[in-house]
Amino acid sequence: MPYVDGFVLAVPKANLEAYKEMARTAGEIWKEHGARSYVECIADDVPYGQLTSFPRAVQARDDEVVVFSWITYDSREQRDAINAKVMADPRLKGPDESPFDSQRMIFGGFQSMIEF
Question: In terms of CATH architecture, what is 3-111?
Answer without folding.
Answer: 2-Layer Sandwich (3.30)
